[in-house]
UniProtKB/TrEMBL annotation:
This is Phosphopantetheine adenylyltransferase. The gene is coaD. Substrate binds at S9, K41, T73, R87. It comes from Pseudobutyrivibrio ruminis. It is an enzyme of class 2 (transferase). Residues 5-132 form the Cytidyltransferase-like domain. Pathway: Cofactor biosynthesis; coenzyme A biosynthesis; CoA from (R)-pantothenate: step 4/5.
Length: 162
């Protein structure tokens, strides 16, 4: 069984993430989306909210599973018995940090490979931060996140303003 993990914050999931999930799921027997429970990042959505959103949006992809994790990505990969870590690459700025993380992970766990997937051109500008920023100023985010996610972001932002 060739299993890959796709780790990230997904706060919240965007069309850019979904695109990587769909493409990466075709390259392995099972893809586990790992939602990082990193409280230092001060996420807008709770870990359960982020996991549930991704589960709902990937329901139709039979070999995609979603789970949360804390701590090191390599430990999550080991726990899932995965051989591959998938990361998306948008710009050169992603590359600089990603190559460093991939090489440190390789030192820690030589059997684990990191595969970088270039973003689709149409999502190369997109990040969860961009989606949240637009939403906070009442902007249209329908090109950034799936329809189910829009009211959830709007509700969170309203809550924060109270
Ligand atoms: P992290 O905080 O770990 O970077 P993110 O949720 O921001 O988590 O991203 C998770 C993964 O998805 C990363 O590999 C990131 O490069 C990738 N990613 C984010 N946005 C896009 C996008 N628009 N296109 C392709 N990959 C993306």
């Amino acid at each position: 069984m060739r299993r890959a993990i796709y780790p990230g914050s997904f706060d919240p999931i965007t069309y850019g993430h979904l695109d990587i999930i769909k493409r990466a799921s075709k390259l392995c027997d099972e893809l586990v989306v790992g939602v990082l429970n990193n409280k230092q990042k001060n996420p807008l959505f709770s870990i359960d909210e982020r996991v549930n959103m991704i589960r709902e949006l990937t329901e139709n992809l039979d070999n995609v599973k979603v789970d949360s994790f804390e701590g090191l990505t390599v430990d999550f990969a080991k726990a899932k018995d995965a051989q591959v870590i998938i990361r998306g690459l948008r710009a050169v700025t992603d590359f600089e940090i990603e190559i460093q993380i991939a090489q440190s992970n390789k030192v820690q766990y030589p059997d684990l490979e990191t595969l970088f997937m270039p973003t689709s051109l149409k999502y190369s500008y997109l990040s969860s931060t961009v989606a949240k920023e637009f939403a906070s100023y009442g902007g249209d985010i329908s090109l950034f996140v799936p329809p189910q996610v829009i009211p959830l972001i709007e509700a969170k932002i309203k809550d924060k303003e109270k």
